[in-house]
Amino acid sequence: MIGVLLLSIQALVYFGVMTALLTARKVYGVGLFVCALGVMHFLETYLAAVFFIELPFGLLSPGSTVLFSGKLMMFLLLYIREDAEVVRQPIYGLLIGNILLVALALVLRFHTDVVKLPGYAPDLAFLDQIGILMVWGTLLLFVDCIALIMLYERVSRLFQRNVLASAFVASAVVLTIDQLMFYPVLHWVTGTPFSALLGGWVAKMGAAAVYSVLVALYLWFGEPARAGRRSLGDIFQALTYRNRYEDLLARSLVDEVTGVKNRAAFEQTCREWLERRSLDGRPITVAMADVDRFKAINDKHGHAAGDAVLRSVGLTLARHVRDGDTVFRYGGEEFAILLRDLAHPEALEIAERLRAAVATEVEPLDGRAVTVSVGVASSAYGAGDLRGLLDKADKRLYEAKRLGRNRVIGETVPA
Prior knowledge:
Elements: H1 2-28, H2 31-39, H3 41-50, E1 53-55, E2 58-60, H4 62-81, H5 84-107, H6 124-158, H7 163-190, H8 195-221, H9 232-239, H10 243-252, H11 263-275, E3 284-291, H12 294-301, H13 303-320, E4 326-331, E5 334-340, H14 344-361, E6 372-379, H15 386-402, E7 408-413
Parallel strand pairs: 6-7
Antiparallel strand pairs: 1-2, 3-5, 3-6, 4-5
Helix pairs in contact: 1-2, 1-4, 1-8, 3-4, 3-6, 4-5, 4-6, 4-8, 5-6, 5-9, 6-7, 6-9, 7-8, 12-13, 13-14
């Protein structure tokens, strides 16, 4: 009973200090929490290798039961309070840092001038053992953290976001697998008896229960879980940094002023569309919309007001196109709109709807409505060359300007 009591005290102290640092991130940043989380990994590994206590159900180590299980639950709590983009940073940091530590320790073997101090001697054999266990434990921790977060999200959907039940089930499953994966290497390195496998597993199940209760209490009385839900695929992409390139690419194709796609995105679409021309028999329409008298707006109200008009026009166009259609800022005050799977008369109807939406929804300047002129070109069949359609739409646009502005002119172009 004394052993269980001491383990419980350790768990409470660990959880109390770590959650205090987690709460303090609002004032001091998350660095305090992350550093405290990572600094004890060597101690965890050392205790897991050499320090065991015996209870009726077997041998167990505080390093695995209290510190390692607690670390996993801290990662989960950080994820619940923040998001996948935040929690992945210490996960990868620990992986890289611990492997670096072992690599640097291996270099020590190349020293030939080591001084033996009285009563002290470097135990390189023990350092090798710890190194093996640290590398293996670090790899398991990396996988465990991602698996715990993914499993938590999965079961929380089944338990209707019940934190206690979700945290316990997810941590119990992950800690069970971790125990089965860590013990064989521990036995191979240190000769730890089989009773540590069962004893360690029972202790980890107890730790899963205790930490799950503490996490639920913290979220209940302290900081509530953040709102919002993402798909499991999005969470996994974020945790594994697979969305990083896609995010950067997506941002590079968005116009900073208007928030719609930019000229580069249109050119990319042109290339993709041309490549699929022979396989795609669907009609396609390109509309060119130009803000009427935009130079006068800039001259009279300034470029900041002009940008605000462009932003409002772009967002209005984007709101009123169909799903699957795309709005691009082509340049200056011109917008290109790509409409798919429409006969020419239907494309003209949508262009007219867009024109009317801008005239009624964009905030007027000096009592005068902001309007657009629109030129429309549709390919009768086949995907066609979008740049050719763009040229035709541009000619129709200037015809609309010549006829008085704030109108739609279009034509059908044979594919």
